Amino acid sequence: MPAKNRGNGRTPRSGKDDLAVALRKFIRTKGADYLDDPNVSSVGVGYKHVDGKPTDELAVQFTVNEKVSEPEALEALGTSPLPESIIVNGVEVPTDVIERSYEPAFHRVPEAATPPRKTRLDPIVPGVSVGHTSVSAGTIGCIVYDVDNHTPYMLSNWHVLHNATGRVGDTIVQPGPHDDNRINDNRVGRLARSHLGPAGDCAVATIEDRQFDPEICGLGVVPDAIGEPELGDKVIKSGRTTGITHGLVRRVDVIAKLTYRGVGTKSIGGFEIGPDPKHPAADGEISSGGDSGAAWMFRSGTGASTTVLAGLHFAGEANGSSDEHALACLPQSVFEKLGVTLTPPASEEAVAAVGYDPNFLSTPVPLPEVTAEVKPDIAKANDGSEVLHYTHFSLAMRKSRRFAAWVAWNIDGGSMKKLSRKNIDFVKDPRLATDAQVGNELYRANRLDRGHLARRADLLWGSTSEAKKANTDSFFYTNITPQMDDFNQSARDGVWGKLEDAVFADVDVDDLKVSAFGGPVFADDDREFRRVKIPREFWKVLVFVENGELKARGFLLSQNLDQLEVLDLDEFRVFQVPLTEIEQRALLRFPQALRDADLQVAAEAITEPLDSVAAIHW
Predict the structure, then answer these.
(1) Residues 6+ positions from 213 with CB-CB distance below 8 Å
(2) How far apart are alpha carbons 484 and 482 in whole angstroms?
(3) Residues β-bridged to residue 226
(4) 308 near 9, Cβ under 8 Å?
(5) Rounded to an integer, what distance in angstroms lies between the CA atom of residue 472 and that of residue 475?
(6) Strand pairing of 225-228 and 305-317?
(7) Who contacts 347 (Cβ-Cβ below 8 Å, separation ≥6)?
(8) Staple partner for 63: which of 30, 100, 198, 529, CB 3.0–4.6 Å?
(9) pTM recorded for the entire structure
(10) Taking a C-beta distance cutoff of 8 angstroms, is the pair 381, 432 a contact?
(11) Contacts of residue 399, Cβ cutoff 8 Å, sequence gap at least 6
């Protein structure tokens, strides 16, 4: 279990600490007795209100469904007057009564648009829509891990992942059924365990059919510790419906009474959050239906989210209430009940995605550089870098085309591994904006392949853990371009991967090592399909050392897309060309060492198409 922080990490308050401790003990031992009154909706510790405004005086604070004082009204509600004060450890503590009721934050209002938080995501991230197949929609709070076997789970509420009709093992979908009712397509995992009671409204589900990223959507933080809320603490959450909202902890040690469909009334422990007047929500709502399960995080002095988890959102004000508020479970009790932690398992054999190695061969071969006219079009990652590094390969992305400008990779033929691609999904790289990459929206239901630029088989070398990491890394959409199936698939005798095979078959490569560069050729008149321009040509450069001498071969590979609308395909054509030809077409420049190593062909040979890679003369 991660270390428990107190609030947002500051020194505990002085002066009223002893009374606060006594009040907390009183609420935890005696508070639930008051919930037997049908008009009392919660009891907790808060600051007493005078004329509708909070003071700095601690009070035992009650909320009621209806605030009445006349005997007839009390009798009609079946309730009794609440005491004006309560003796706690010999101290007379005033009470406070506020009209307020609660209900679980189910989704209630249909919406015409489908924001990104309500769509199918891979990898999944906290802060987006999720739900049991019989629930409308809730929110993924954060990624947690089993304390015993380190299995990763999605954390949310009982009433989001379980509900009255659910059972352990049931299918969980992302997004929730209200946002997308294609249950079979959206399965993400199964319900693992849950709890509904004083310790919280909470549940966890496995992550089986997707990848995951633990960074909370819109907050940019990964929770790594749990905290204990104090009155006045500043918190922030990211939810499916209201997005990012700010709040202030205004009551602690709250026990709230809620009615859950199919199971009746339950008492849930936690704390209450009100709006932060310095950071008002756009429509005044700090939470709404569908936000259930969102993680409330402590905020720093600057207003940004910390990595400390304050609580798990589970309820908001009932319909008709004019008082805006939210309720959250305490993370310590939730984690203990569910047997989970925020601490991810330590990798037995961690593998760093160091990327392309320019010193891989006996002669250094640096990365290519794009021309000055293209440089402003190179996409930047979240950390500002222009080159993305993966296991055994690196690349740079073109913003305007959303495909790689170039990819560079190393191939070690002496330590190749054979690994299955089964159960590895194509995913977008979270280091780049989602709209900076072309995803599966282009490839559904047609002959276009999701073609690897750095060939998957080329990358599966080194230690087993290295090869496994490279196998997974190769499926990022940043390494993918649209290629016709005949062009790409080895099962269809595709030509794209044959070039590397030809090197090892026909050349005495020193140490069985090859470095490679490749990418698409972007043209203004490329045909557009599903609002994406499809490259007609691709280039590849293979670099190796033979008898101590650095050598390079450059190729252009063309696919005829004149009949793109019906995805008809003519014969592929492969040309061996000087590197200067590739530089001109791809708008980049290779390092001088590579240019010097180019085994150029005669100019007249460039115009003759090659029927297959086997026809290339080394």
Answers:
(1) 123, 124, 125, 430
(2) 7
(3) 4, 309
(4) yes
(5) 6
(6) parallel
(7) none
(8) 100
(9) 0.51
(10) yes
(11) 377, 378, 379, 436
State the CB neighbour count (10 A cutoff) for residue 343.
15
Query: CA distances (Å), 52 to each of 19, 47, 479, in order?
Result: 24, 11, 59
Tallying the residues shown for the chain, one arrives at 618
Give the range among 58-62, 101-105, 123-127 with minimum mean pLDDT. 101-105
What six digits make up the tokens of 403? 């495909």
**Nearest C-alpha neighbor of 137 from the set 120, 159, 116:** 159
Q: Please give the structure tokens belonging to residue 382.
A: 């979240």
φ/ψ (deg, to 5) at 573:
-130, 135
**Is residue 334 classed as helix, strand or coil in its secondary structure?**
helix
Give me the pLDDT at residue 613, please.
Answer: 32
Q: What Cα–Cα distance (Å) separates residue 167 from each residue in 158, 170, 192, 262, 294? A: 11, 6, 9, 14, 22
% residues pLDDT > 90 (the chain): 45
Give ∠ CA 472-478-482 in degrees, rounded to 5: 105
Q: Are strands 91-99 and 513-521 parallel, antiparallel or unpaired?
A: unpaired
pLDDT digits (tens, 9 = 90+) for 531-565: 888 888 889 998 999 888 999 988 887 765 443 33
DSSP result, 115-163 = -GGGS--SSB-TTSEEEETTS--EE--EEEEETTT--EEEEE-HHHHT-
**CA-based nearest residue to 262, from 196, 339, 328, 190:** 196
Which residues have a Cβ under 8 Å from the Cβ of 216 and sit 6 or more positions away?
A: 125, 126, 127, 142, 222, 223, 238, 295, 297, 305
Contacts of 259 (CB under 8 A, 6+ apart): 103, 265, 266
Decide if 316 contacts 103 (C-beta within 8 A): yes
How would you list the strands of the sheet with 187-197, edge to edge? 138-139, 129-132, 171-173, 187-197, 200-206, 152-156, 142-146, 340-341
Spatial separation of the C-alpha atoms in residues 229 and 30, rounded to whole Å: 21
Question: Rounded to whole angstroms, what are the CA distances from 312 to 227, 258, 330, 336, 451?
Answer: 11, 16, 7, 14, 42
CB atoms within 10 A of CB 360: 20
- Higher-confidence residue of 48 and 502: namely 48
Please check the confidence at residue 465 and state whether its pLDDT lies above 50: yes
pLDDT confidence band for 352 (50 / 70 / 90): low
Tokens linked to 130: 């999720």
Tokens of 286: 């700090």
CA dihedral 184, 186, 187, 192 (to 10 degrees): -140
Question: Rounded to whole angstroms, how far apart are CA atoms 331 and 200?
Answer: 9
Which of 146, 137, 143, 144 has its CA nearest to residue 125?
Answer: 143
Q: How far apart are the first and last CA of the chain?
A: 61
Residue with tokens 């913003």: 399
Classified as helix, coil or strand, 468 is helix
